[in-house]
Design brief:
There is one protein chain. It is built from 19 helices and 12 strands. It is of the alpha/beta class. It has 4 domains: 114 residues, Response regulator (Rossmann fold), CATH 3.40.50.2300; 176 residues, Rossmann fold, CATH 3.40.50; 77 residues, Helicase, Ruva Protein, domain 3 (Orthogonal Bundle), CATH 1.10.8.60; 48 residues. Bound molecules: adenosine-5'-triphosphate (ATP) and magnesium ion. Magnesium ion binds next to helix 7.
Length: 458
């Protein structure tokens, strides 16, 4: 849901737009002229401004300029009854993300709004990233101390120096998009645009025109000329996210662009050259998809010049404490809370969890825990219930223990029991401490610590 300000002097249209946007889950306010819009813009934060070009007091372009001064990262859409190429260019320069030629279909409005909001979110994220990077190297934004992640980052850095296409694979939430941005940021194109498109999210009928643009009147609803994302990413990087979901027909067209770097807008005449570096990501196994005839092999080879495989979080548990600390700091700052850290039990739980949702899941877990922590460290009761018991509780066998009449040295007895249990677990797991620890329901660290103590004692 976003907060959208709609500025148009025509009351009927203004209300219609507000209504349509609200039906789509957004919150809106209407303004009848530039002065009112400016007042509202100054009063509260808006995610998006939609304005008509012709306003009774100032011009829509002036409004765009002022709005941009107030919040440079906020996207804006311009509506106009007669879009000339020069107005469109000026509008883009003044910060409009896109323009809509009146009359337009509501579907077109929704698409433009969704794209503009996505762009806004991206810009904010980029700004944060840039701030975070500051004088530090871009690499520090990505947390990764495990050998596998270090290797991935090293390869990413190397690939960034070239224009080679990179295919980033990995389960959902492993950081594919983050790595794509990282490559762009470390590359010679860093000052150029980074344009991301989620191939799975754009309806099949629209994706071609999204990517390659369309000429005016190319199809019903194509009320204005659209340059397309390849053009938008010119001299920068285009990130084709969820590439595995691309329909076969489009794959053939993509292959041509990848080979020749020439695009042909839908319904347009002629081609134009684009200078775009391609990055793609997928959580599917594209070799398997190729075998099943769902993905073109030739396209796979073109995109997969360099392959970066992001390991699932459960295979790089060393990264968990640092990631958790990073997310704690981030989310605590967001909520204005001062939380010093996690209790050892919580950290233990975090380290042992399976993370089917990978880094994103860890981030969400920490965010939830932060939200439930009133003061002090994050304690066990801030973790979801399933996590609290599911991981640690193991079935306890009924005890056959009988206290000898003369009593016993309980400490020594427990130590012997512990040593025997650990021995047996190690034997059962062919010496793997990780698995032995799991078998005994304890963390690897605890297991290692206790083993050390036992060995020291003997
Ligand atoms: N190594 C990391 N360091 C810091 N943050 C990370 C790291 N990896 C992932 N994240 C964060 O986790 C979240 C998920 O990452 P991202 O969106 O890049 O994953 P993805 O692989 O593209 O997932 P999906 O397949 O679901 O699209 C993001 O908020 C990202 O910032
Ligand atoms: Mg992603």
């Amino acid at each position: 849901m976003a907060q959208i300000l709609v500025c148009d002097d025509e009351a009927n249209l203004r209300e219609l737009l507000c209504l349509a946007l609200e039906e789509n889950g957004h919150r809106t306010r209407g303004a009848a002229n530039g002065a009112e819009a400016l007042r509202l813009l100054e009063q509260s934060p808006w995610d998006l401004l939609i304005t008509d070009l012709r306003l009774p007091d100032i011009s829509g372009l002036d409004l765009l300029r002022r709005a941009k001064e107030l919040a440079p990262e906020r996207p804006a859409l311009l509506m106009t009854a007669f879009a000339s190429a020069s107005t469109a260019v000026t509008a883009m320069k003044e910060g409009a993300f896109d323009y809509l030629e009146k009359p337009f279909e509501m579907e077109e409005l929704h698409l433009a709004v969704a794209r503009a909001l996505e762009q806004g979110a991206l810009r904010r994220e980029n700004d944060l990233l840039r701030q975070a990077v500051g004088e530090r190297e871009a690499g520090e934004v990505i947390v990764g101390v495990s050998p596998t992640m270090r290797r991935v980052l090293e390869l990413a850095r190397r690939a960034a120096r070239t224009d080679a296409s990179v295919l980033i694979t990995g389960e959902s939430g492993t950081g594919k998009e983050l790595v794509a941005r990282f490559i762009h940021g470390c590359s010679g194109r860093a000052r150029g645009p980074f344009v991301a498109v989620n191939c799975a999210a754009v309806p099949e009928g629209l994706i071609e025109s999204e990517l390659f643009g369309h000429a005016r009147g190319a199809f019903t609803g194509a009320v204005s000329h659209r340059p397309g994302l390849f053009v938008e990413a010119d001299h920068g990087t285009l990130f084709l996210d969820e590439i595995g979901e691309t329909p076969l027909g489009l794959q053939a067209k993509l292959l041509r662009v990848v080979q020749e770097r020439l695009i042909r807008p839908v319904g347009g005449v002629g081609e134009r050259a684009v200078d775009v570096r391609l990055l793609a990501a997928t959580n599917r196994d594209l070799m398997e998809e190729t075998g099943a005839g769902r993905f073109r092999e030739d396209l796979l080879y073109r995109l997969n010049v360099v392959n970066l495989r992001l390991p699932p979080l459960r295979e790089r548990r060393e990264d968990i404490p640092l990631l958790a600390a990073r997310f704690l700091e981030q989310h605590a700052r967001k909520y204005g809370l001062a939380i010093p850290g996690f209790s050892p039990e919580v950290m233990d739980c975090l380290q042992r969890h399976g993370y089917p949702g990978n880094v994103r899941e860890l981030s969400n877990l920490v965010e939830g825990a932060v939200a439930l922590t009133v003061e002090g460290r994050v304690e066990m009761d801030a973790l979801p219930e399933g996590m609290r018991c599911g991981v640690t509780r193991k079935e306890v066998p009924e005890s056959t223990f009988r206290l000898p009449e003369g009593g016993l040295d309980l400490e020594a007895h427990l130590a012997a029991l512990e040593a025997s249990a650990m021995d047996q677990a190690l034997e059962a797991c062919q010496g793997s401490k990780t698995r032995a620890a799991e078998l005994l329901g304890m963390s690897f660290r605890t297991f290692r610590y206790r083993l050390g103590k036992l060995v020291g004692r003997n």
